[in-house]
Amino acid sequence: MSNTNQSRLIVLAAVFGIVAVASAEPPHASSTAAHAPAGHGGAPHWTYSGEGGPEEWGRLASDFATCAVGHHQSPIDLAAAAPAAAGALRTEFPAATLAIASAAHLGEAVHNGHTIQVDFPKGDTLSIGGVPFELAQFHFHAPSEHTVAGQHFPVEIHFVHKSAAGKLAVIGVLVKEGAANSAFASIESALPKSAGGKARLDKVALGVGALLPTNHALERYAGSLTTPPCSEQVSWFVLTTPIELSAAQIATLSAALTANSRPVQPVNGRDVVSDELTVH
Predict the structure, then answer these.
(1) Do the beta carbons of residue 190 and residue 109 sit within 8 Å?
(2) Which of 85, 101, 153, 222 has the lowest CB atom count within 10 Å?
(3) Which of 53, 221, 26 is nearest to 139 (CA)?
(4) Model confidence at 173: pLDDT above 90
(5) pLDDT score, position 198
(6) For position 116, what pLDDT does the model report?
(7) Contact 160/139 with Cβ under 8 angstroms?
(8) 28, 35, 111, 114: which one is catalytic?
């Protein structure tokens, strides 16, 4: 990498000012440091609708107050603010293939009551400002949490990365209906379909890069977890070109997740910056 690109990466880290995550909080950004949602393990029960729904999250516990009073909340509508001038800043995704499971590194899929999450004991990395963020897990939302000009997509996938210091960076991938996705098909039958279900993915090999679009243009902004406690400590990178899943594949996720999307939040003057993911 050239010295110029290294400098740009350092600037990117400074622009985001990523905040360290307390070790007690889950690693999701949409679903909590990716999605080991709060609401389990003694935390107040929360839901996506009705009693305990998003409009009540901030009142369920003092630790959840940011859900109601925070000014940098996620998700947002990506067209709600004019993007800041596109610059030469770059993110770097060093490995084009992220292994869900192998003989050495076995993954596990868990339905935690809020999402289906695939956890990694070890993952490939996203580099920001020269700092590596290891892929911790990815999970699904149906419909999408981020919108474009007010429109939801059928599904959104969040790839949650965490640094050694506990900082979070999440890549969001939007999904539209189209052709069947062979990468998703390789794990579809193994994914648990109801709360509490777990499945070892010890016989499944998946290149997570296959779940990214070929066009790596994105919008990035500083935001929050999209589940309680809604901590404002997440750097978001949402790819704007959707991938495709078939109608049947989308139906499989929708049936298992039952509308697990937080409503979009006010932009509140934040910069939404056009950028591009560099994949090696």
Answers:
(1) yes
(2) 85
(3) 26
(4) yes
(5) 93
(6) 96
(7) yes
(8) 114
Whole-model pTM?
Answer: 0.81
Contact between 129 and 223 (Cβ < 8 Å): no
- Please tell me the distance from the alpha carbon of residue 54 to that of residue 30, in angstroms, as a whole number: 13
| Whether 71 is catalytic | no
Q: What is the three-state SS of the chain?
A: CCHHHHHHHHHHHHHHCCCECCCCCCCECCCCECCCCECECCCCCCCCCCCCCHHHHHHHCHHHCHHHHCCCCCCCECCCCCCECCCCCEEEECCCCCECCCCCCCCEEEECCCCEEEECCCCCEEEECCEEEEEEEEEEECCCCCEECCECCCEEEEEEEEECCCEEEEEEEEEEECCCCHHHHHHHCCCCCCCCCEEECCCCCCEHHHHCCCCCEEEEEEECCCCCCCCCCEEEEEEEEEEEECHHHHHHHHHHHCCCCCCCCCCCCCCCEEEEEEEC
pLDDT over 50 (residue 44): yes
List, in sequence order, every residue forming a beta bridge with 172; answer none if it has no partner.
158, 238
All domains of the chain, ordered by start, with CATH? Answer: 3-279 (3.10.200.10)
The pairing of beta strand 90-93 with beta strand 116-119: unpaired
